[in-house]
Amino acid sequence: MQLITAFLGTLGFGILFNIRGKKLWLAALGGFLSWGFFLLLGLWIEGEPVRYFLCSVLVSVYAEILARVVKTPTTTFIIISLIPLVPGGSLYYTMASALEGNGQQFLDNGVHTLSLAIALSLGIILVTSFVRRLKILKK
Amino acid sequence: MTEELLNCIIVLGERMLVAGAEVHRVEECIRRLCCAYGAVRADVYTTTSNMIVTAETAEGHFLTQTRRMAGTGTDMAKVHALNDLARRALVERPEPGELLQQLEAASNTKVYPRWLKILSYAGVAGAFTLFFGASRWQEAVISFLIGGIVGVAAQLTERFAINKALERFICSFVACMLTFTALHLGLAEAADKIIIGNIMTLIPGTGLTNALRDLFTGDVITGILRSIEAVLLALAIAAGYVTAVFLLGGGF
Question: What share of residues in chain A are helix, strand, coil (percent, to 5)?
């Protein structure tokens, strides 16, 4: 169920970001995969940030490969594919707890959101810098 | 390397950035184009709002141009087209006039029709309401409908181009008002799930992730700008939410 909705949600975002043609479907498939990886990793690993990090690495690899195949900037796929993982929900709860005046909960949620975002971006960077290094070596 | 040529190159970079390309890609692209056209050295500094390029020509002259960008959107088709153009220009090195023509052609990418965009807002809202754990279909349907209205609101506010924070405020306000109304009418129970689904299209989750990515890759100023933008937008969304709670009492 979550996998299907992840696919549909990502597809919608793809349209809003004006991704066209088969790239749109590939990007949406990325959204499906990223949540799939997340659920799969959940079988072995409990900590959410670690799972986010690993997912983001896997999805970035997927995006880098696709970008080479269809010859388009990698961002197209990375941003979109990671949408289901983007901590929108937890950002919302952070906000809501701040408004309720619940300081402790606000801090907990805030730290959680930030750690997820950091895990995601570290995953992306790890792969991009590695690919960039490879490219330089090839030259 | 001439003033005219540098102008073409910087316009290309500017459009790429405004269409949502990464700062790193744009800097690299401008630098390589300058060098391909015979500059001995090119220094490019770009943030999301400002761009400075200095190229040293083979004759030892220094050419400098700057640009101020008002705001960025996301149009991946355009980034793709411009990136392709840059790659071709690296090899073929067309004359400035021709390059400018190709540039205009590449900037003219197709966009999806308005109804499809509105449908996407609705679809994203409905899908993420279920995704974040709403247990009943009813919630998803309500969220889908509200999402459509938010989509219309987003398009209208964008057309008037007020500013991003105000846009988000209005959209979030509309979404929360409608959700609480549905709640009061007894049409839905899980207000938080519906709101999350709807603000997924508004909330700067991607912005936050991109901001951190820039910070870690060394584009510190851009990273800071993006982080602050993300926080401001989140605050605007929160303000819309609070206003709705204040007016309708909310469901909490």
Answer: 80, 0, 20
Give pLDDT tens digits along chain B (252 positions).
Answer: 788 889 999 999 999 988 888 888 899 899 999 999 888 999 999 988 899 999 998 888 899 999 998 777 788 888 889 988 998 888 888 888 888 888 888 888 888 888 888 888 888 888 888 887 777 778 888 888 888 888 888 888 888 867 888 888 999 999 888 888 888 887 777 778 888 888 888 877 777 778 888 888 888 898 898 889 888 888 888 888 888 888 886 544
Q: How far apart are the first and last CA of chain B?
A: 64
Cβ atoms of A91 and B206 within 8 Å: the answer is: no
Burial state string for B42-59 with b = 16 or more CB within 10 A and e = fewer than 16: bbbebbbeebebbbbbee
| CB-based contact A128 B217, cutoff 8 Å | yes
8 Å CB contact of B77 and A6: no
The full DSSP string for B105-122 is HHH------HHHHHHHHH
Contacts of A16 in chain B (CB under 8 A): 74, 117, 120-121, 124, 201
How many contacts (CB atoms, under 8 Å) link A and B?
146
> Of B228, B104, B111, nearest to B158 (Cα)?
B111
CA B41 to CA B54: how far, in whole Å?
Answer: 8
Among candidates B80, B112, B241 on the partner chain, residue whose Cβ is nearest the Cβ of A15? B112
The number of angstroms, rounded, from the C-alpha of B218 to the middle of its chain's C-alpha atoms is: 21
- Gap from B145 CA to chain A (nearest CA, Å): 15
Structure tokens at A126: 């790890």
Residue B64, beta-bridge partner list: B54
In chain B, whose CA is at the least distance from the CA of A83?
Answer: B206
CA distance B149 to B66: 40
Provide the shortest C-alpha distance from residue A9 to chain B (in Å).
Answer: 4
Whether residue A60 contacts residue A123, with contact meaning beta carbons closer than 8 Å, is answered with yes
3-state secondary structure of B132: coil
- DSSP string of B70-95? ------HHHHHHHHHHHHHHHHH---
Residue to test with chain B: of A2, A3, A5, most B Cβ within 10 A = A5
